[in-house]
Amino acid sequence: MRCTPIPFHRPYLPPDASARVQAAVESGWLGGDGPHTTEACRILEEILGGPNVFLTPSGTHALELAATVLDLTPGDEVIVPSFTFASTANAFAVHGATPVFVDIRPDTWNLDERLLTDAITARTRAIVPVHYGGVACKMDVIDRIAAEHDIAVVEDNAHGLGGSYRGRPLGTFGSFAALSFHETKNIQCGEGGAVVVNDPDLLAAAEVARDKGTDRAMFFRGEVDKYTWRALGSSHILGELPAALLGAQLDSFKVIQNRRHEIWATYRSELDGWAAAAGIEFQSVPEECRHPAHLFALLMPSAAARERFIAHMRGAGITTAFHYQPLHISPAGRARGRTGRAGCPTTVDVSERIVRLPLYPDMSDADLERVVRASCAFQVASVGGPAR
Ligand SMILES: *Cc1c(COP(=O)(O)O)cnc(C)c1O
Fold first, then answer.
1. 90 alpha carbon to ligand 1 midpoint, in Å?
2. What is the pLDDT of residue 1?
3. Is the per-residue pLDDT at 312 higher than 60?
4. Which of the residues 69, 149, 223, 353 has the least number of beta carbons within 10 Å of its own beta carbon?
5. What is the pLDDT of residues 141-197, one digit of tens each?
6. What contacts 346, CB < 8 A, 6 or more positions away?
7. Is 52 in contact with 198 (CB distance < 8 Å)?
8. Looking at ligand 1, which residue's alpha carbon is closest to its atom 9?
């Protein structure tokens, strides 16, 4: 009997998802900032322990909103890791800023804070830490360096909702933090995101920038008697239909997260002996970090071993996935960005060897067991030749 295929990812749909979206449709309020948005923001603010969350059409939009409010202009530089999604750099590059690519740490695969000071110039305006897999960057060091040089921090927290660093929720560190609710993320509404405005001095400008550069929010509060075009902005508001789906997801936050953590912990413990014997590494999770089980990755001993592993798993009906291609050597990264003399060797190395296992809330115990068994049946040694 052939086993049914196990996908890499399957978006979780809470039982009331359809009813919520239908209610939103029937309410007639389809634009943004309606009751479903209010409800989703309330839960997000509860998770983050602070106010000032605005839903956006995507995580990319949230980063672009930050770039708009920071008033980045051509020649300004923004420090980003090379090992990340294109949006982390693109959101700033579309405003003419130059992404400056910095390498990652070999243990957490996060922006290497030890390389920051060297990358800073008189034109540096922002640092964009990405918490890979929701494992926090060394935020105390990053915040200190940013403050010393009077540079903004914009947190790309696309992976990290529910995670924390030294007890403080991820998404509350930067002047702005971006969240993503893309269907591949822990909490999703197809396409969606949010910007967290952590610096109260930037709140008024963010309200204008998200609403096409107008002061309509002030008008609705009765603070001005008509609204007009005030500054640069764009259409950064999420409609009520995806917001309704998002609200349903957020109501199930604990259920989703508990199951993701169960799966993550099972992989970690069941694969431990096999990985150690085969020279396969896991992402390290420093003691001060609580991660939200966004992904489970293996660092294979070589690129060849990774290719063989992916094929081996495919043979067992299991889809696995590698991850980011280094941005500093991507066509747009080369054309628009800058990389220090040392390059980003760890980014290149990790991107060639990393592979992610299936991880989604409605994965059954039987399927989880199948992935564990299939993984452990893979033998790195049979590659032949030196491991690396
Ligand atoms: C998903 C993601 C984003 C934003 O994605 P959207 O699809 O625009 O919501 C940004 N950065 C990282 C690291 C991501 O993984």
1. 11
2. 47
3. yes
4. 223
5. 999 999 999 999 999 999 999 999 999 999 999 999 999 999 999 999 999 999 999
6. 83, 103, 104, 105, 106, 112
7. yes
8. 59
Cα(88) to ligand 1 centroid in Å equals 7
List strands edge to edge, sheet with 338-339. 53-56, 193-197, 176-180, 152-156, 124-127, 77-81, 98-102, 338-339
Is the pTM above the cut of 0.70?
Answer: yes
| Binding pocket residue ranges, ligand 1, CB within 6 Å | 58-60, 84-85, 87-88, 130, 156, 158-159, 180, 182, 193
- For atom 5 of ligand 1, the residue with the nearest CA is 59
Quick one: average pLDDT of 306-324?
A: 97
CA of 193 to the centre of ligand 1 (A): 9
- Tell me the pLDDT of the chain averaged across its residues: 96
One-letter amino acid at 287 equals: E
- Structural domains in the chain plus CATH codes: 17-251 (3.40.640.10), 253-376 (3.90.1150.10)
Q: Which of 56, 87, 131 to mutate to test the pocket of ligand 1 (most atoms within 8 A of CB)?
A: 87
Percent of the chain exceeding pLDDT 70 equals 98
**Beta strands 124-127; 281-282: pairing state:** unpaired
CA atoms within 13 A on the CB side of 138: 16
- For residue 135, CA distances in Å to 27, 110, 263, 376 come to 40, 8, 17, 25
Q: 247 with 20: CB under 8 angstroms?
A: yes
Report the pLDDT averaged over residues 109-132. 98
Give the number of the atom of ligand 1 that is nearest the alpha carbon of residue 185: 1
Position 20, amino acid: R
Distance 180 CA to ligand 1 centre (A): 6
The partner residues of 339 in beta bridges, in order of sequence, read 101
- Say how far apart CA 275 and CA 199 lie, in whole Å: 43
Q: Closest ligand 1 atom to the C-alpha of 88?
A: 11
